[in-house]
Write a structure and sequence with these properties.
Largest sheet: 10 strands, mixed
Oligomer: single chain
Radius of gyration: 22 Å
Helix content: 25-40%
Distance between the termini: 53 Å
Number of strands: 15
Strand order of the largest sheet: 3-6-8-7-9-10-12-13-14-15
CATH superfamily of the largest domain: Alpha/Beta hydrolase fold, catalytic domain
Number of helices: 17
Number of domains: 2
CATH topology of the largest domain: Rossmann fold
CATH class of the largest domain: Alpha Beta
Shape: globular
Length: about 550
């Protein structure tokens, strides 16, 4: 008999299937829909933690490259005191795993300060970044204690990455697996699990905020654009990302994704899905590497148009008003481009810089391009190359998502909130990609995106983090980040008006939108040009 997927089970999800919370105090012992589990006792801050909980069956054997299946009933009391395995990553050079890698990686972690299961605290579900190629919900940066102390429940989870998460094949489609976006299906399965079970931990299944950074922020935008997300979350936070399009153009089409999958079969001399499933996971993973200096949209398995999770590019869905009409908080960091400099156009000479730009923007390059990205000197060209790739990979699409959500008539005027992260300190000397993460979670662990060696955080870092944690959790509670004692954050006014400067002196400002609107002008029905996928900027 064909197994019923977690997503198919969503059709029958009603309040009646939610677990009835136990009477009395919430403890480390909890009963959920498929059995009993035991987490860690309350820490000194009164926070309970539960780790490594399977939200779907292990996607191994015949379940490799299948839609996530409902978790099996637990045998006895499940030990939820330690993180579970991480999903396989594909990076070259290798990036260290948070926990040992395994295909059996669909697990989640919960932090709750609820005293009683009946409290209905707001829930924040974190989607980790990593280009859809690496990362884990159990990284030290994402430890949820500090956020949970603000009166919310924090959930982190793993999703399948790289070839395990995004392989598309005609044979899989015929099998009923709706192939191409298993990693996004895992995100939906995690949301369904939370919707079904979070009341047992003192959470409100009807007040869920999804938030993520980089690929996690792109996942937030893709889920907002997916027809399968209806009713699964009520608010969204995008930190540096939105549509998963860039200098590499829009998402891979249905046909392109299947051509990539067929080429992978040929590479491994595995002419059928049965032959692929017979291969060891290490062999599969080693055959699909991602070199981190290249854009994963060009060289790896990533989200694509599968006609199931995604029926069109997210920018197109937003442009036509088909996205979820939920309050949105979104923004970017001041120096996003530094991380993606290897993707950018060459800046060695003015001629090479402008010739490369012409491949993207055509005859419009002389003006206004040169005004927006000056190139008269070597210093100007270097900075413009970094600015341009930061705009193309992160800033423009995040801005465009804010603009399109702001135009949604059914949302109130106090529903959209925008920011730019500018904070600097000895711990964070440069507000580059990912540098806001320690402040959002309150965990000051080393960040290789900053430098190999970082100074210790100071009282100023701690104080700034406390403000950001209040902003983020206030938004999760009410849809408005403002609260007593916080610098006022005005609702986004559109066209760059009222961007909150998350800096050493927090205040809102009017953001210059000229570069973003220039790049956005090349969108057709919300999608960037497919021709960009074939551009070689060098």
């Amino acid at each position: 008999m064909k197994a019923v997927s977690v997503l198919a089970a969503a059709a029958s999800l009603t309040v009646s299937v939610l677990c009835t919370p136990a009477i009395g105090l919430l403890t480390e012992n909890v009963t959920i829909s498929n059995g009993a589990l035991r987490g860690n006792p309350k820490d000194a801050n009164g926070v309970l933690t539960y780790k490594g909980i399977r939200f779907a069956q292990p996607p191994v054997g015949n379940l490799r490259w299948r839609s996530p299946q409902p978790p099996a009933n637990l045998n006895g009391t499940f030990d939820a005191t330690a993180y579970g395995p991480s999903c396989y990553a594909s990076t070259i050079p290798p990036i260290p795993y948070a926990t040992k890698p395994s295909e059996d990686c669909l697990n989640l972690n919960i932090w709750t300060g609820a005293q009683q299961a009946t409290e209905k605290r707001p829930v924040m579900l974190w989607i980790h970044g990593g280009g859809f190629e690496f990362g884990s919900g159990s990284l030290p940066t994402y430890e949820g204690t500090h956020l949970a102390q603000q009166g919310v429940i924090v959930v982190t989870f793993n999703y399948r990455l790289g070839v395990f998460g995004f392989l598309a094949l005609d044979e899989l489609d015929k099998e009923g697996s709706n192939s191409g976006n298993f990693g996004l299906q895992d995100s939906l399965a995690a949301l369904l699990w939370v919707k079904k079970n979070i009341a047992a931990f003192g959470g409100d299944p009807d007040n869920i905020t999804i938030f993520g950074e980089s690929a996690g922020a792109h996942a937030v935008g893709l889920l907002m654009a997916s027809p399968l997300s209806k009713g699964l979350f009520q608010k969204a936070i995008m930190q540096s990302g939105a549509f998963w399009d860039s200098e590499a153009g829009p998402l891979e089409t249905f046909t392109q994704a299947r051509a990539r999958g067929a080429a992978f079969e040929t590479k491994l001399a595995a002419p059928s899905i049965a032959a692929l499933r017979a291969l060891p996971a290490d062999t599969i993973n080693a055959a699909a590497p991602w070199v981190i200096t290249s854009d994963p949209k060009l060289s790896a398995f990533t989200p694509n148009l599968d006609k199931y999770v995604l029926t069109a590019n997210a920018g197109t869905i937003f442009n036509t008003g088909g996205q979820m009409k939920v309050p949105l908080l979104a923004g970017w960091n001041a120096n996003e481009g530094q991380t993606f400099a290897s993707y950018g156009i060459p800046a060695l000479t003015q001629q090479r810089f402008e010739e490369s730009a012409t491949k993207y923007f055509g005859p419009a390059v002389p003006f206004p391009f040169r005004n927006l990205y000056p190139d008269s000197t070597a210093a100007e060209r270097n900075q413009s190359s970094i600015d341009l790739i930061g705009d193309m990979v992160i800033r423009e699409q995040t801005y465009t998502a804010l603009e399109l959500q702001h135009r949604t008539a059914s949302l109130g005027i106090n529903s959209i909130w925008a920011y730019q992260f500018n904070f600097i300190s000895a711990f964070t000397p440069n507000p580059a990609h990912t540098t806001e993460l320690p402040y959002v979670f309150g965990n000051f662990v080393p960040n290789p995106a900053v430098s190999p060696v970082q100074d210790c955080p100071t009282a100023a870092d701690e104080a700034f983090s406390a403000v950001l944690r209040q902003y983020w959790t206030n938004f999760a509670k009410t849809g408005n980040p403002n609260g007593s004692g916080l610098p006022n954050w005005p609702a986004y006014g559109g066209s760059g008006v009222n961007i909150q400067g998350l800096s050493n002196n927090i205040k809102h400002f009017i953001y210059s939108i000229a570069r973003n609107t220039y790049i956005a002008s090349f969108r057709t029905n919300g999608a960037l040009p497919s021709s960009w996928k074939t551009v070689t900027p060098a």
